[in-house]
TrEMBL record:
Organism: Pelagibius litoralis
PROSITE patterns: GST_NTER
SUPFAM superfamilies reported for this sequence: GST C-terminal domain-like, Thioredoxin-like
Stretches assigned to the GST N-terminal domain: 2-81
Stated name of the protein: Glutathione S-transferase family protein
UniProt cross-references to Pfam families, sorted A to Z: GST_C_2 (PF13410), GST_N_3 (PF13417)
Regions crossing the membrane: none
């Protein structure tokens, strides 16, 4: 079996979600560090232009967005399960809040609080990515009390769940739900100067953070980006062909498709031929001279999929 390879960078909060998930499953993986800002010359050949971190690679299968990454980990490495209490549908529904509104608030907090100290190119890039075309990082500073008030209420809900459920978000054992929340606390604690004092309001959550932090990130070893590209080139996808007769868009294998995040962050559009589609996922065939033929896995939720 090919190694798990994560293309990420240390400061990425969304990558921390996956790193903690590796720790929950006790997995060994290889780490490829990518630049925080485009261009990303050793990532784009793999992804067809998808620029966000993290990206997971297993051989010639490239998983874009943490929805696909985490589903693939559960399918390939089912024990221990991400869902010890059952209810995977509930956890995925929770992810739409944590990865949507709650992440948006955390990013706005960190960008707004650091508006005067952020490098200009980083502020422009992340402002466009997370705030859309019409708002700047500078606009956030005046809104910080409102942002903090919303986060305070949200973390109070999480604190209550941890207390009621025996130490973790959904029960006495850690689950994917804990990774979905932990990375936001990690981001706020590490990237907002007032983060530690803000989180100190929630003692059960602070204790919960420590328990997850103790699990670390699994067994990790560094890898050069060129080696990851070589692995893709000499590997073959394990993704079978297939489509859904009841697909509401009528997607069929071989269709030329375009995929882009549904929220306008200025992301490049990724193109490819459809290899597989079901209710949750589309998989595109992508070809590049540096990597040969690979399969790009995208979630349906949160993405716009159209015929090219």
């Amino acid at each position: 079996m090919n190694d798990i390879i994560l293309h990420h960078y240390p400061q990425s909060p969304v990558s921390e979600k996956v790193r903690i998930a590796f720790g929950l499953k006790g997995l060994a993986w290889r780490s490829v560090t990518v630049p925080r800002l485009p261009p990303k010359p050793d990532l784009m050949p793999l992804t067809g232009g998808y620029r966000r971190a993290p990206v997971m690679q297993i051989g010639a299968d490239i998983y874009c967005d943490t929805q696909c990454i985490l589903r693939a980990l559960e399918q390939r490495f089912p024990d221990p399960s991400f869902f010890p209490e059952g209810n995977p549908g509930l956890v995925w529904a929770l992810s739409r809040w944590t990865d949507g509104e709650l992440l948006d608030l955390a990013v706005r907090l960190v960008l707004g609080a650091g508006a005067e100290s952020l490098p200009a190119d980083f502020a422009r890039d992340r402002g466009r990515l997370y705030l859309g075309p019409d708002q700047t990082v500078g606009d956030l500073k005046a809104d910080l009390p409102n942002i903090i008030g919303q986060l305070r209420a949200a973390f109070a809900w999480i604190e209550s769940s941890i207390e009621r459920n025996g130490g973790f978000v959904l029960g006495p054992q850690p689950s994917l739900a804990d990774a979905l929340v932990y990375y936001l606390a990690w981001f706020i604690r590490g990237r907002w100067p007032q983060g530690p004092s803000f989180l100190a309001q929630f003692p059960a959550l602070v204790s919960w953070e420590s328990k997850l932090r103790d699990r670390e990130h699994g067994d990790v070893a560094a890898m050069e980006s060129t080696e990851a590209l070589d692995i893709a080139q000499r590997s073959e996808t394990v993704t079978t062909e297939g489509d859904d007769a009841e697909d509401p868009q009528g997607l069929r294998c071989g269709d030329r498709l375009a995929v882009v995040p549904a929220v306008d962050g200025g992301d490049p559009v990724v193109h490819g031929r459809l290899r597989y589609a079901d209710r949750e996922t589309v998989v595109l065939i992508h070809e590049h001279a540096r990597v040969g033929q690979v399969c790009l896995h995208f979630p349906r939720v949160g993405y716009r999929i159209t015929r090219a």
